Predict the 3D structure of the following.
Amino acid sequence: MAKKQLTIILPGFAPLLSQQINKSIIPTHLAKLIAKADFKANKHSFKRGLFNYFSQDEIIGADLPILSLMGDDELTLRIDPCYLHADRDQLLLFADDLAISAEQSAALIAEIQALLIEFGGIIKQQQPDQWLLHLDKLPDLNLTALPEVIGQGLEQHLPQGQDKQAWLRLWNEIQMKLFNSEINQQRIEQGKLPINGVWFWGAGQFKAKQMTELNVQSQVEIVQHFATRSNCLLKISNDFIVNDLEANNLWVFDDIEPEEWLQQLDRLEALFQTLWQQMKTAKIKQFELIIPNYGRYHLTAIDCWKFWK
């Protein structure tokens, strides 16, 4: 019988586990699992971790080939809308939960489209908060993936390469255009953040590792793309049942906000209790818990019986 293995990815839990003050709210059986496990720090973002999990080769560049994963045209970049915030001597970028409607998105695209003419670019709305830039020719640029810069100062992440001056000029012109947008004035009056910038990213080629014996379970859309490209067995569900495990399993949970930690931990306690019992009886041989932006816990059935840990 094949050895059962389980990997769980819990995005959004890095602040919980990295701060000592939160130790008291970690449920009993999760605490047991991580106390017995070997830990290796890893600051990779959720998306970078997924790319490297499913990629043939480790992706070490600053950008992530999101467009290749999605099967988009090779002459395409992401040009995602964002909020740029001046904080003392640096410019910070935010792109999550901006609550952009499809109508606002279309109007903002129409306002900046003319700036792309000299670059042979056409902007299209993929989703309200995800825009595509179709080009006649890809620029010579080294870009940084959007997930890597959210909440970060932008100076060290700005485009580099032979064409950087022209594209930095374009980036600034787009900011000036959006600053005067009536859509943004309306958003500010509604108590929303303005969409006052964009971020170019997503270039490169993604070559998927073939993992036909991996059972992937998740409701996260990007995980489903990875599973399909790697020919995994895919189950789209958040009903995670330890007793139903096949040989090799990857479970990816939805991202979670800090205010939802307690509710999610309560729901997970029964799962971790069953997992602990099956690890101690060697019904599950190996367990990994990956916390994006924090690290990886690795536990074997034998580790559960190490009294000195």
Observations:
- The two ends are 29 Å apart (CA to CA).
- The chain has a mean pLDDT of 93.
- The chain has ten helices and twelve strands.
- The CA atoms of residues 116 and 122 lie 7 Å apart.
